[in-house]
Amino acid sequence: MPNWINACAAGDIDAEDLIRFDHGIQTFAIYHAPEGDFYATAGHCTHENVHLCDGLVMGHLIECPKHNGQFDYRTGEAKRAPVCVNLRTFPVKVEDGRVFIDVDA
Amino acid sequence: MGKRDYNLLGPDAQRAVQTGLAAAQWYHSDVPRREMKELMQRSDGPAIRDTILLFAAMAVFAGLGIALWPSFWAIPFWLAYGVLYGSAMDSRWHECGHGTAFKTPWMNTAVYEIASFCMIRNSATWRWSHARHHTDTVIVGRDPEIAVMRPPVFIKVIANFVGLIDAATGLTRMVYNALGKVHPEEAVYIPTQEQYKVVRVARVSVAIYGVTIGLAVLTASILPLMVIGLPRLYGAWHHVMTGLLQHGGLADNVTDHRLNSRTVYMNRVSRFIYWNMNYHVEHHMFPMVPYHALPALHAKIKHDLPAPNQSIAQGFGEMWPALRRQLANEDYFIQRALPPTAQPYRNDFHAAALGSAAK
Fold first, then answer.
1. Do the domain assignments include residue A103?
2. Complex confidence, ipTM
3. Would A95 be classed as within a structural domain?
4. How distant is the alpha carbon of residue B334 from its chain centre?
5. Is residue A100 situated within a structural domain?
6. Which of B12, B198, B240, B255 has a CA that sits 20 to 30 A from residue B205's CA?
7. Has residue A6 been placed in a domain?
8. Closest chain B residue by Cα to residue A82
9. pLDDT averaged over consecutive 10-residue blocks of chain B (359 residues)?
10. What is the chain B residue with the closest CA to A17?
C-alpha cells in the first residue's frame, strides 16, 4: 500500500536541481530533471554521511558535494567512485502542482 | 590531548569514531543555492588551456635540456621542467582526482593518471585516500594525508623539498603493490572491490620505470631518468612549499575548515603551478567548486573567513614558528582571529580534542 506524502510544490525546485525533504526520521532528495520529470532518492550519499541536497545536478546525475561520487538519480545507480553502493529511489507523482513521494516504497 | 598516534588502525582512529569526529558534519559558510550552483558549474575551457600550456612548456623545457645536455646551460631548463613535473603535476593530480578540472570525464581521468604517475602515487589508492582527507581533514588517526604530524620531524619535512621521503615511500609501496599486495592501512579506506586496481596500476608503473631504467643502462646515461622519475625529486620543492601551508601549524581534530586550513595569496606563476589551491579553506569547504572558480568563491565568503596570508613568505612566517613550538608542545596550534562579519568558531563541537591555541 503506497504511503504518498505531499513533499513540496513542483515550482519549489528549479529545473536540473534538487531540494531536501525530511519526513520523520527519513531524509530525501527530490529532483527536477531537465525534461520536467520529478524523482526522489534517499537523502544521504551511500559513501559517507553527506546530504546530496548541496550537490550539483548535471543532466540525470547527482554529484555528492563532498567527494564527487555520482548517481543516476532516476535509477539510483552508482556511476562514479568513490560511491560503489546504489542509492535507494522512491516513487514520485505530481498532482495539482504538488510533488508526492511514496516514502514506504 | 598530548601524544598523537597517526596510525589509521590505532587508538586515535578509534577515539575519533567514538567521539563523533570521524565523518562529522562540518561548518560551511552560507552561500545562496543559485550562486553555489553557478560556482560549481563545470567547463573544459580553462583546464584545456592550462593543460596545453603545461605540456607544451614541459616539452620545450625538456627538449632544450636534452639538446644542451650535458652542458651547464641545460640546468635552468631542467629546473623549470622539474617544477612542472614534480610540482604542477601534484595540483593536476589533485584537481582531476576531484573530477572538477574538466567537464568531460575522460579528460579528468587521463590527466589524473599521468599526474599520479609523475608524483609516484598509485592512482587507485590515492583517489580513496584523498576522499578520506576530505571527510576527516586533519583528524588524527583518520586522515591519511597529514603532511606534518606532531611533533614535527623537520628532517623529513626538509628532505621532502627534494622529494626524498615521499618518492622513497611511493616507490617502495609501488613494488609492494605490484607484488599483488594491498597494505592493511590502504585496506582501511579502499573498498575490497576496488583493490585489484591498486595492483594493476602499480604493475603498469613498474613497467614504465623498468623501461626507463633499461634505457638509461643501455645508453649509459641518466638522461632518460632526467625526463622520467628524477624530476619528482629535483622539482618537488614548489608543491611541498605550497602543500605545507595548507594545514601546517593549524588545529587538528576540529570540524571547521577555518581552523585547520589556510588561504594564502600567491603570485600568478605559483597559482598556475598550484592551480589555485592557495584558496584552501574555500576548497575544503566546497570541494566541488572547480579551481578556476575559487577566486570568485573566495570573494563571496571571505567575510566569514580568517584574513588570508598575504604571501607565501608571510604564510611561512606564521607557520614555521608554530611547528617549532609543537616540538615541545604537541597541543599547540595557531587560531586565527575571525573578522566581525564572520560566524564564530564553534569550539564546543570539538573542545575535548583541542589543545592550546596561540594567543
1. no
2. 0.87
3. no
4. 21
5. no
6. B240
7. no
8. B128
9. 88 91 89 95 97 98 97 98 98 96 96 98 93 93 94 95 96 97 92 94 98 98 98 98 98 95 98 98 97 98 98 98 96 96 84 55
10. B37
